Amino acid sequence: MSGRISLLPLAALLLAATPPPYRPADLGQRPDRGGTDILPEQFLRGYDPITAYFSGHEGPGTGPADDGGKLLRIEPAWPGAWFWVDRKTLQFRPAEPWPPLRRFAVTAHGTQRTLATMMSAPSAMQPSDGSTDLLPFRTLTLTFPQALPLESLRQMLRIEIRDLPGLGDSPRRVVEHVDLSQLPRRDQRDPATYAVTLDDDVPEGKELVVTLALALGDEDKVLWTGRLSTREPFRLREVHCGAAEAQIGGNAKLPRELALACGVHGELPQLVFSAPVKDLTLTALKQLVRLEPAVPDLSFESTGERVSLRGRFVPDVLYRMEISAAPVHDETDRPLEDPGDAELFFYRGWRTAFLRWSQSTAILEARGPRMLPLVGYGDARADVRVYRVDPLFTGLWPFPASPVEIDEHEAPPFPGEEPENAGPPRSASPPDDLAAHLRLLGSPLVSKIVDLPLARHAGATRFGLDLGGLLDPVVGRRRPGTYLVGLRRLTGGPQRSYVRVQITNLSLTTVEDRDQLVFWVRALDDAEGISGAHITLEGVARYPVSTGGSIDRPVSLELRTDGDGKAILGAPLENWVSIERLSVRDGDDVLVIDPHEPPPQFASHHWGYASDWLSWLMHPVPPPPNDKPLAFVFTERPIYRPGEVVHVKGFIRQKIGGALVAPLPEDSYGLKIDGPGDRSWELPLHFSPLHGFAADFA
Question: What is the pTM of this model?
Answer without folding.
Answer: 0.65
